[in-house]
Amino acid sequence: MRLEELISQFQKKDKKAFGKLYEMYAVNICGVINTIVRNEARAEEICHDVFIKVWDNADRYDPSKGRFFTWILNIARNAAIDELRSKSHKREKLNLSTDFFVGILERPEEDDKRDFDSTRLKKMLGKLKKKCIELIEMLYFRGYTQQDASEVLQIPVGTVKTRNRNCISQLRKNMSAS
Amino acid sequence: MIDVKAYIESGILELYVAGQLSEEQNLEVARYAQEYPEIKAEIIEIEKAILALSREAAPGFKPSFDKISQSLSEGDDNNVRSIGGSRILRREYLGWAASFLLAIGTTYLYFQNRELSDRVKGAETEILMMEEQIAEAENSLENSERLLNTIRDKNVVVVALGGQTVSPESYAKAYWNKEESQLFIDAKGLPEPPEGMTYQVWSLKLDPLSPTSVGLLEDFANDDNGIFALSNPNDSQAFGITLEPEGGSEFPTLEQLYVLGKVSS
Asked: Which spans of this chain does the record mark as coiled coil (chain B) (predicted)?
């Protein structure tokens, strides 16, 4: 079944279609949540809730306004960020650090085996500059707007757009090479 | 007709996948994606890259779908009914349709409302946090101003206390208002005392040397500005600070004399 049909079935509250979409995206979405909350147990719970929210709000997804994955990604990011906001961070300014990927790339080999194997991730990000990795993490995994990213990185908004294009192109090259 | 290549190169599609475009831009991209297969293909490739990256970033877990499936609200499986020709049946159908629409409307409003109240809650917390921060800042500003005014008083004598043998690089300052028997010690130049020890301030008469305890610099590590207020009714000729066991001593341990300074007369 084509993706569009699956989505339209899902919007009609077809559990089977939803199950298929779930298999397509759940690992990714849980992964994104994990890069934000950095606690696997919590991430799994939030991920569970996110997909229930996705189901409950099925009729609110509008295909003419964006990709289905982008829509879920947005719900997941918001849920994860709310979680950070609500717990024990009350006094500090919410600081969404963007060092998840850079951190994995920089840590020593022997730490790798302990949680998950990051060799493929390293291969994928390997040739990317640090500023690329940070930008990708900001825009896709943290939900920074172009404006946010331009302020944090102190580069013009237009540069955010073109740099991101170059970074994603490099990422795609790495992927097809590996 | 748009320049498809330039459009792709502009980087707008990457932002589309990130969900970082305005509503209008989203509609525009979606429309072009329908019109130009190259644009659609590019979007799918970008999405693939992000999917691959997020997949690799995941520790690989996901909650089982069965568990989620159990928590799902039921879809409306029984909304398919045959519509009879008779008026009564049609009216019944209308009633169902109306209540169905009402249910959708209510659900929609409910979510709208929930989202709004979530957002309000978030904003309220943020405001509270900021207010707290402002209050704290005002408080500390007030304290600093009060302190500054106190030590600027014309009756205040400033005594520089220099480091002694046990710690030559230490220093401190005493601001003494003899009229009001106030003594402020600026202890920024003293090292943090070791566990179980505390600094004790002494008023000294020089000839013959007789020390009188003025007080302790308590909770040294947690004091945020390093300035301590003490009361000194003595007719002091010099001030000294020694390191003593917690609680202070009756007489100064002179081997642990950190700083010393004479009151200029």
From this structure: 113-154
The answer to whether residues A56 and A93 touch, using CB atoms and an 8 Å cutoff, is no
Contact A34 B58 (CB under 8 A): yes
Which stretches of chain B score pLDDT less than 50? 76-85
Q: With beta carbons less than 8 A apart as the criterion, state whether B203 and B181 touch.
A: no
Put simply, the answer to whether A121 touches B72 (Cβ < 8 Å) is no
Domain range spanning residue B118? 87-152
Cβ-Cβ contacts under 8 Å, A74 against chain B: 19
Whether B52 and B97 share a structural domain? no
Q: For B147-181, how does the pLDDT look when each residue is reduced to its tens digit (9 = 90+)?
A: 788 878 888 899 999 999 988 999 999 999 988 88
Instruction: Say how many domains are in chain B.
Output: 3
On the CB side of B232, CA atoms within 13 Å amount to 31
Which region, left, alpha or beta, applies to residue B207 given φ > 0 means left and ψ of -120 to 50 means alpha? Answer: beta
A60 with B111: Cβ contact below 8 A: yes
Is B68 an interface residue toward A (CB < 8 Å)? yes
Does A131 contact chain B (CB < 8 Å)?
no
Residue range B224-257, pLDDT digits in tens = 678 888 999 999 999 999 999 988 999 999 899 9
Chain A residue with the nearest C-alpha to that of B111:
A57
| Fold that domain A100-177 belongs to in CATH | Arc Repressor Mutant, subunit A (1.10.10)
Neighbours of B120 (CB within 10 A): 10
CB contact under 8 A, A162 and B56: no
Whether residues A48 and B10 touch (CB distance < 8 A) is answered with no
Query: Is B54 an interface residue toward A (CB < 8 Å)?
Result: yes
Cα-Cα end-to-end distance for chain B: 92
Domain covering A3-86 in this structure, CATH number: 1.10.1740.10
3-class state of residue B17 by DSSP: helix
Comparing A64-73, A91-100, B43-52, B201-210, the range with the smallest average pLDDT is A91-100
The domain spanning residue B166 has which CATH number? 2.60.40
Where do the CATH 1.10.1740.10 domains begin and end in chain A? 3-86
Chain A residue closest in CA terms to B31: A64
| Among the partner residues B9, B26, B63, nearest to A48 by beta-carbon distance | B63
Q: Which residues of A touch B26 (CB under 8 A)?
A: 64-66
Give me the phi and psi of B66, to 5 degrees please: -60, -40
Q: Using CA atoms, how far apart are residues B212 and B204, in angstroms rounded to an integer?
A: 6
Chain centroid to Cα A173, Å, comes to 20
